[in-house]
Amino acid sequence: MDTQTVKSARTTLRRAPLATAATALTLALALTACGGESLEESDSGSDTDTGSDTTETGGSDGDTLVIGSADFTEATITAELYAQILADAGFDTEIQTVRGRELYAPALESGEINIVPEYLATTAEYFNRDENGPDAEPVASSDPEATRDALIELVEPRGLTVLDYGDAVNQNAFAVTEEFAEENGFTTLTHLGKSGLPIRLAAGEDCVERPFCQPGLEEVYGIDITEVDPKGVGTAQTKQSVQNGTNELALVTTTDGTLADFGLVLLEDNQNLQQADNILPVLNDTTAENQEVVDVLNELTSTLTTDDLVELNRQVDAERVRAVDAARDYLVDKGLIDG
């Protein structure tokens, strides 16, 4: 079981009673060192050791806020941000790394986990399928407010509270070489579609059937996809294949911190093909009763931007800065915690 314990320097903790971890065994079965979900349910291409010091524990002691985290770079960073800003506010916090949403969502509902940094549209569709079946009509869209309303309706009966979303958003995105973009005057996916150029796309193997990948690019933007090269979502192999000219277009994400290293730039999704995957906290209701917890997390959410996440991901993935250190430096720099 991978955990990161962040202890507050304060001795007086200002909190409402928190739910005690009901069953350590349940969560222990879920805690592994596997990769987290990407937006295309494929690996994100990062094999970075995020550098968090880990401690074996048996679960929450009832006085600790447990933050759940998937095991990929950005999830680790956001969990560190949550844990450290709450610790600075006077709470004992602990990060528990969990294999996937299908495992940490029940732990959140039961109170074994108190808080999870989530992706709005992806989470809404997870609970939609869980509630209404795998063929349920989608409830998420490119409208974050409407998507949040749909998510709230799905999770309120489960004892979960959805806080505000902010400007930070991790969506599927499509990248080309900077040279290719400049030569053709491309800044948007519409420009690419109107060019009529044949495009080879490096992406996940399921891109050919996912509505936000090949079908969406063809139907919404009129892009002529001649081949999908299954190299993964945002993997080094995907980006290298565009850099060296094997492919023209790469499926990445909006918070990819290493695009510049490969000479790549994003083309704007100017017709809103992608769903609103803004980052926001999801809490169990007992934890959400503590207004200070809510206020602290809302302050962080309102501060964090997509560009901030790009830079934090770059530090961890490219510069090998530990996630715990990158998060702390960011919070101090933004005046969110004491230096």
Quick tags:
339 residues; alpha/beta; D-Maltodextrin-Binding Protein, domain 2; 2 domains; five-stranded mixed β-sheet; 13 helices; 38% helix; disordered N terminus; signal; transmembrane transporter activity; ABC transporter substrate-binding protein; ABC_Gly_betaine_transp_sub-bd
The CA-CA distance between the termini, in Å, is 30 Å
Quick one: CATH superfamily of the largest domain? Answer: Periplasmic binding protein-like II
Low-pLDDT residue spans: 1-61
What is the mean predicted local confidence, pLDDT? 86
Question: Which structural class matches the secondary elements?
Answer: alpha/beta
- The strand count comes to 11
Determine and state the CATH class of the largest domain: Alpha Beta
Tell me what the CATH architecture of the largest domain is. Answer: 3-Layer(aba) Sandwich
User: What is the spatial order of strands in the main beta sheet?
Assistant: 8-7-9-6-10
Largest sheet entry? 5 strands, mixed
Domain ABC-type glycine betaine transport system substrate-binding: 63-331
Region (Disordered): 37-65
Protein name: ABC transporter substrate-binding protein
Signal peptide: 1-35
